[in-house]
Design brief:
With 145 residues, the protein is mainly alpha-helical. Helix content is 61%, strand content 0%.
């Protein structure tokens, strides 16, 4: 017969291991492919393309590292660049409603090309919508540049 303490210890031992979204979607390979697809969309977008340097590889690397860290992966982004300060880093660019919508369209297109299972897909879409809204720095909609 189990004592009250023995029964309690048995239930405490059955703790569920938490898995990050980063791990659940496949880690670095998933985020590398997502960001590559995203920048393929950006490269073809007349509104967004002028906001980026000719060589997209640096922007691609930074976004990949940021998203991996945000979703529970390695902290390489912060280790190399410090706090993300996303609004400050995007402030030199005029991010209006049209630019927000274009960025979000590119990201959702990239995500939906290889969507993770639910609830990860919904969590990522919610984050991207919030982030795109947060980056807006003007109410005017005159082309985003």
């Amino acid at each position: 017969m189990l004592s009250a303490n023995q029964g309690h210890r048995t239930s405490v031992v059955r703790v569920r291991e938490e898995v990050t979204l980063y791990e659940a979607v496949g880690g670095e390979p998933y985020f590398s492919a997502l960001v590559e697809r995203f920048y393929g969309e950006v490269a073809a977008d007349d509104l967004l393309r002028p906001m980026y340097p000719r060589d997209l590889s640096g922007a691609e690397e930074r976004l990949r590292l940021f998203l991996m860290q945000y979703w529970g992966g390695p902290t390489t982004y912060s280790d190399e660049r410090g706090h993300p300060r996303l609004r400050m880093r995007h402030n030199p660019y005029r991010v209006d409603l049209a630019a927000r919508d274009a960025w979000l369209r590119c990201m959702i297109t990239a995500l939906e090309a290889d969507p993770p299972a639910e609830p990860m897909r919904s969590a990522m879409i919610e984050y991207f919508v919030r982030s795109a809204d947060f980056m807006r720095n003007t109410e005017e909609s005159d082309g985003g540049v």
